[in-house]
Amino acid sequence: MAVTLKDVAQAANLSVASVSRILTNRGRYSENTAKRVRQLAQEMGYFKNQSAADLASKTSRAVGVVVPLIHTTFGDEVIKGLYEATMSSGYELLITYIDDDEKHQTQVFNTLLTRQVGAVFLLSLDIPEWLMNQLAAENVTVISLTTILNDRISAVTSNEFTMMDTLVDYLTKKGHTNIALIGDTKLTTNISSVRRRNFIESMKQHQLTIENAFFYGEDHSYETGYRSVTEGYDIDALPFTAVIATADLVGIGLVNALTDANKNVPKDLSITTIDGMKLTEISRPGLTTIQQNFTEIGRIAMNLFIENNIDKQQKIIYVPTKLVERESVATIK
Q: Any stretches that span the bilayer, and where are they (predicted)?
């Protein structure tokens, strides 16, 4: 049978209430007594029933993290940051996955609400308005990670325009005027349309027209990068000299497609990416990239909640990014 709080109290010759206060860090007690009780609990194999404790106190030490079912290369880094911030706080991460199915979305969020989570972190998700309204009605703190969803939900992210403008500026200074945005360039979601709009705006600010801009793809996958120059455009007569890939995997797909066609990066095509994960470093050639600090995004977001720094007013926090220059961009004379 499982060891109960009463068993620990009897072994320590203390009341159940006293042992409960010690194990939950509440009330007054001597350090020697606390040390003895904690050691006894560990030796006896006592584990706190957090769900029961939450029910009794009518509060929750759980937070939900909702992750897209489609794998992202950076998701684990964001979750790592969330986890690091919870290690000393006593909060529990409940990680769940979501797809585009409305019935499944309802089930996922109802499950989190049933657990009385104190907060929900949305990892690079574009969820419908009715779900937003449901979370607001339940008075649950919602924080978006890596993207700004609307003018109500707080977010911790990188500055999307700064990232895009940095890459466009870098490429134009290298002599490139015809530039392609390849990856998730569709206009059907908030997340993808923001990068497309920022790309067009940055091109305009660099005195380039829409005729200098090229687009391909509907997702951030390796396959999209590969197909962009094998099916989307003629690899032997590309109308652009440089690419901004909307994710690292897209850039890797481009590199491999060119390599398979006996082409050279950056001689035949210059490639840059957004995200800056390990993939860009181990690629050959190494890929010039805008590196986002995903672990810090997760850490800052969790601390915002733990320190109760989120109120009814939307709060947007931008985490700095940096340009990492490698060997994938040529200078055009």
A: none
